[in-house]
Amino acid sequence: MFQIRIHGRGGQGVVTGAEMLSVAAFVEGRHAQAFPSFGSERTGAPVVAFCRIADREIRLREPVQDPDCVILQDPTLLKVIDVFSGLKESGYLLVNTNKSFDELHLRGVVEKLPPGHAVIVPATDLALKHVKRPAPNAALLGAFAALTGLVHFESVKRAIAETFPGKVGEANIAAAQEAYDLVFSHERAATV
Amino acid sequence: MKTMDHDFAITLDVGTSLANHTGSWRTFRPTYVHRLPPCNDACPAGEDIQGWLSFAEAGDYEAAWRALTKNNPLPAVMGRVCYHPCENACNRAQIDSAVGINSVERFLGDMAIAKGWRFTPPAHKSGRKVLVVGAGPAGLSAAYHLALFGHAPTIHEAGPAPGGMMRFGIPKYRLPRDILDAEVARLADLGVRIEYNSKVADLQTTMKEGGFDAAFLAVGAHIAKRAYIPAGEAAKVLDAVQVLRSMEGEDKPLLGRRVVVYGGGNTALDVARTAKRLGAEEAIIVYRRTREKMPAHDFELEEALEEGVMMKWLSTIKNVEAGAITVEKMKLDEKGFPQPTGEFETLEADSVVLALGQDVDLSLLNGVPGLEMMDGVVHVGPDMMTGARGIFAGGDMAPSQRTVTVAIGHGKRAARNIDAFLRGETFAPPPRHELASFDRLNTWYYGEAPKTMRPMLEIARRSATFEEVVQGLDESNALYEARRCLSCGNCFECDNCYGVCPDNAVVKLGPGKGFEFNYDFCKGCGLCASECPCGAIAMVAEEI
Amino acid sequence: MLKQIEGSQAMAQAIALCRPEVICAYPITPQTHIVEGVGALVKTGDLENCEFINVESEFAALSVAIGASAAGARAYTATASQGLLFMAEAVYNAAGLGLPIVMTLGNRAIGAPINIWNDHSDAMAMRDAGWIQLFAETNQEAVDLHILAFRLAEELSMPVMVCVDGFILTHAVERVDIPDQAQVDAFLPPYDPVQVLDPEHPASIGAMVGPEAFTEVRFLAHYKQQQALRLIPAFSGELAKAFGRASGGVLRTYRTEDAETVVVAMGSVCGTIKDVVDEMRDEGAKIGVVSLVSYRPFPVEELRRILAPAKNVVVVEKSIAVGVGGPLADNIDGALRNLDGRPKLHSAIAGLGGRPITRASLRRLFHTAVENPWQGAHFLDLNEHAVGREIHRVRKIRRSGSTAENILRQLAAANPLPPG
Amino acid sequence: MTQAKTLQPEEARQKLKFYQKGTFTVGNRLVSEEERSVQASEDRSNALTSGHRACQGCGEALGARYAIDAAMRATDSDLIAVNATGCLEVFTTPYPETSWQLPWLHSLFGNAAAVATGVAAAMRVKKKKTRVIAQGGDGGTTDIGFQCLSGMFERNDDVLYICYDNEGYMNTGVQRSSATPPAARTATTPAVGPSPGNVFGTGKFLPKIAVAHNIPYVATATVADLHDLERKVVKAMSIHGARYIQINVPCPLGWGAASCDTIKLARLAVESGLYPIFEAEHGRVTQARKIRKQVPVREYLILQKRFAHLFRDGVDDPRVARLQAICDAHIAEYGLLGEDNEV
């Protein structure tokens, strides 16, 4: 079972991101569970969403305590909460930022993870570019597919298209594609 | 309606509360009653006015007429000449104005004449003969009722025509003679024999010769009272009876241009108004007291004043000379009696007519044993029988108010008692119901409806002709007037009790059948009685 | 058809497949997505012959459903928490009138302090109202239980409450197999009411019943509800045959065959417990779990049969009957009444107001129950420091204000960042 | 012949049409069956039949039969009634007997309007023409049932709601409701202390609130004017959407009045101006029933023990004048004096 925790703020599509991710896994015939950190989320408030992906029925209902992957949609949260809580040593970290891990003072965190398991992606910029809205979730899913290889990018595209039919979906897919390409090339560069 | 399969206790089949007889809650029970309407109570002829009005208001005029004529055979006459004490008593007067009972009566009477309605003759004849003396209202009434009882009444009338004082005392403009004749003809048609110019001089002889089993004496007050007034030889002094009677003959009385009538009763007004119609320029009534004290009916005075009759109040005639009279002015003392003042006045007068009241000629009773006479009338018991067995008397002869209506009532009452007498029984009048007084009514339910005024002949024609002054109602007016009746004390099927009962405990029996209480459910709240418009429901304490 | 779908949307689709004729909607978290979902299906015309009524309160919501159901329409509504309490009077009434209304309860805590997160306080507050109460473990089961609920309700003329953990299920996106219309139609015949408001066959429904018959009315309600213990397995069986999966039943067991410790719980937490059972089994512990589906009627005989061989029974429940303890534990205790050599009963209160119930805590709990049993009710993951300070403070000062406020203040002082 | 004062034909017909004895009475033997009131008919449905357990002279029992019978005729008996808890419910349906003869449902005290909404929704979805009436007392309507009622109005549900207003909680022993008039003594506004009885300046007149919902039809009526009441019920049944009729139904027990005075009290309530009778359509008052024979409110008050403290020691309490001022205000507001165009 692979567990993902997504941190962001209300309005950034955190919950939708988790749901799209679960759909991408479902499309591949796997079991997936997505759920928010239940509450009355208001725009701007810190929000957490979870996703579990497995090859058998997922019975577990506790919040994701020991994630295999943390997706940080908004680095400003670093000052507010411990987003890395329980992150497995073999885990992944995906951060939406234009800065470097050093600029974010995350070198220490990244170094604990296996090489190539931490990546930054300017998802908000990509969203603004393609979707014209600062909704980085689709782009981050593209990046997630590239980073973890847990789901195929084709599945991510289908999940985005199901969630956002029509032009909005296409724009989000474009953002996801660019993020995917960006991370994929970065990863290849790292492994090569 | 099939019953549904349903839950225990919480779902119930409709209407099952009929098993719960709430009548046991009752401490007072409503009962339908008949109370005596004040009009009926006041009617000297004992008419069931409310009863016949209820037919009239439904538009069933013949039924109304038949109900009316159960008590009074002369509705067309009475609808003109009755002073309608019923209307004075009418409860409706306390709401807006009295129901125009008299006008509806006349409407019915006139319609009966126009339609030729006839009385239904009795099924059986008794073969008993009754002598009726006098074809005035009392005599005609008694003969009518006796005929209906199956007896054979014969009226001996001293005069040449029927009607008595109705003909010889009431001017044509108040009672056209064709109306009178038509209603008398209907009586003759029923089997009432009238022998005219047949004055009974000796009652006992007439009865014996005629083989009569009983007699009813109904001689009118045809003799004018006189008063001593100093008069010159050329002075023309007449009496009212004389004047009015001569109006029925060929030779009309010659009263001159200025006529003074002395008296304050209705007869005085009749004479003055007749004088105007005969061409008098002035007709002056001299009366010793005031308008308020005048015995004549105010509406008649009003009509007279409209026609130009003049009044000389608080005056007595001291002396009559040719062409002039002297009157003394009076004033009322503390007790309301006129007292002379010593002030005199002279009035021009071509004639003076005395209208000071009338007496009955009682000479036919001479020699009849047991009769008791006093103050010019015969003493009778409540059964109208005189001191002599089998001899009854009524109308002007018996002590009472001398009105046509009273006379008709006397005739009816006498007939009932004569009928009982002939069968060797005593007539027991049915008990009178409690009076349906105004406080018994719930007047909320009566719509606003002022009285219809009877049309009047225009003034110009009234002072020149003897055409009838007061006109009749047309049908819509009569219907409207009949419907103003409050039906005091008697159910008129308004459905109020049926409607207002919160327990549906009033059963409607159908048109004309009224209602009854379902005491299984009546809780005795009394709403039906309170909301009964006419006071036809009484609440009676339950026996415990 | 398999879908990756939010629980609320899945339930909305299932409810629509049941062809409800009157739906009463009033928003309250966390059930709102369900009625929104059905409402949208009515608006689009996917659900035909359905009146969707936006009412002004939960009290009206159930009242409208009462009227509709009494008049012969298949009626549905949903609520949660305060909403259920606000309609409480009508909850009892619907049952008393024998109306087969189906209601989703998105289980949520009851205030004060106001709390929108999941526990079972709301369902417990209405447990004696005369409704059948079924608890779903997964969204698949939630879907199936709704379809079963209409069948059951109409068979018995009795309302059914489908209890679904708020957020944990309602807001979770997971794999759900939604049956197609033909499948549902074959399972659920059109509503044929036993009694109905009908001018052709008038009756008075809702009479006042006095002492002379009230006991009998209540006896019959009790008797009737117990029929569901027979019908629920029967219908679940039919449903399994038709849909090709097992759902419902009055309860389900998991690895209880030789279990010395049997956990009893209701709703979504059973999934987490199953994971813990697997882990502990792997470690050699003889442990199993009973997922109780039908809380009302309470399957006494079935529970006795299953629990009798165990040494320890641990009841994990998301509600507290203040002043007594866990109501489910009490009911289990009642089921074991007078049983010779009955197992020890351990009552745990967990997950109140949405506190996560973690595997770690459950493992600790189950071990403790066997090794170091407690008396009375145990509050899982209780912050003993916080309550200790408050109790101490209240002892010193009377009129100290709201306990809830005080604890929040303490927690804020002790831990400036809320746990992630 | 010269006519003096006589009725013109049109005028005469007008008068005859209303046949003085039958204008205000329940029935009238002289008009055809169809022209008579429902209550005058031998075939009235008696939707609320005998054997019920209402007090003697109960205005509510009367009002309910008046209204429901009229609605039964208007709908050809295709009618369902929903009843709030209260006297009407208790006295008509104690197990094992019911007095109702139409399909009838009682759910709760405060939800009659909502339950009726549900019934109406069921009829709509079943494509039936059956009409729905909700009914309750003033407590169940103006107080505890107010929210459901307002919701039903606001949604314009196809329900006629009838409130039988007896100005208090009579079922529970005569407590104050928001329809209790000022100065009235109830069990919770006792006639003691410096301000005996119910206070002035509180309470609500629900018909105006109903009008504010802009629903198709609102009317007030009384058991004292059957024709008006039946006309309004029939009119209401000819309209679809939310409708509200409030019927003044005196309560002999709660008002401390003679059981035979029930209708009289309702009449005086109207004739004094204390209880304005009007109708409104789509938020606008369209007709006010004129006072026929105006009476001082004192005549109304003095018949009721609940106002007895206003007349102690033979002196009128100043509150009588304040109540009269309320009447006068109603008269001015609704234009209750003058000629009535409609009879």
Q: Topology of this structure?
A:
The complex is a heterotetramer of chains A (192), B (544), C (420) and D (343).
Chain A: E1 2-9, H1 14-27, E2 31-36, E3 46-54, E4 69-72, E5 92-96, H2 107-112, E6 118-121, H3 123-130, H4 137-148, H5 153-163, H6 167-191
Helix pairs in contact in A: 1-4, 1-5, 3-4, 3-6, 4-5, 4-6, 5-6
Chain C: E1 2-6, H1 7-17, E2 22-25, H2 32-44, E3 51-54, H3 58-70, E4 75-79, H4 81-86, H5 88-96, E5 102-107, H6 121-125, E6 132-135, H7 139-156, E7 160-165, E8 173-177, H8 181-187, E9 203-205, H9 211-243, E10 251-254, E11 261-265, H10 269-282, E12 287-292, E13 294-296, H11 300-307, E14 312-317, H12 327-335, E15 344-349, H13 359-371, E16 377-379, H14 384-396, H15 403-414
Parallel strand pairs in C: 2-3, 2-4, 4-5, 5-7, 6-7, 11-12, 11-14, 14-15, 15-16
Antiparallel strand pairs in C: 1-8, 6-13, 10-12
Chain D: H1 9-17, H2 59-74, E1 79-83, H3 87-92, E2 104-106, H4 112-125, E3 131-137, H5 138-143, H6 146-154, E4 160-165, H7 206-212, E5 217-222, H8 226-237, E6 243-248, H9 252-255, H10 262-271, E7 278-281, E8 284-288, H11 297-301, H12 318-334
Parallel strand pairs in D: 1-2, 1-3, 3-4, 4-6, 5-6
Antiparallel strand pairs in D: 5-7, 7-8
Can you walk me through this structure?
- The complex is a heterotetramer of chains A (192), B (544), C (420) and D (343).
- In chain A, 40% of the residues lie in helices and 19% in strands.
- Chain A contains 6 helices and 6 strands; from the N terminus they run E-H-E-E-E-E-H-E-H-H-H-H.
- In chain A, helix 4 (137-148) runs antiparallel to helix 5.
- Chain B has 544 residues and is of the alpha/beta class.
- Chain B folds into 4 domains: 16-34 and 491-541, Alpha-Beta Plaits (2-Layer Sandwich), CATH 3.30.70.20; 38-117 and 441-482, Orthogonal Bundle (Fumarate Reductase Iron-sulfur Protein, Chain B, domain 2); 129-222 and 360-422, FAD/NAD(P)-binding domain (3-Layer(bba) Sandwich), CATH 3.50.50.60; 229-356, FAD/NAD(P)-binding domain (3-Layer(bba) Sandwich), CATH 3.50.50.
- Chain B contains 18 helices and 22 strands.
- A 5-stranded parallel beta sheet of chain B has the order 5-4-3-6-19, covered by helices on one side.
- The longest helix of chain B is centred in the last third of the chain and has 19 residues, at 404-422.
- The radius of gyration of chain B is 28 Å and the shape is globular.
- The mean pLDDT of chain B is 92.
- With 343 residues, chain D is α/β, with parallel strands linked by helices.
- Chain D has one domain (37-334): Rossmann fold, CATH 3.40.50.
- Chain D has 12 helices and 8 strands.
- Chain D has an 8-stranded mixed beta sheet with strand order 2-1-3-4-6-5-7-8, with helices on both faces.
- In chain D, helix 2 crosses helix 8 (226-237) and helix 4 packs parallel to helix 6 (146-154).
- Mean pLDDT of chain D is 93; it is low at 1-10 and 12-17.
- Chains in contact: A-C, B-C, B-D, C-D.
- The interface between B and D is large, with 66 and 66 residues.
- Strand 1 (11-13) of chain B pairs antiparallel with strand 9 of chain C.
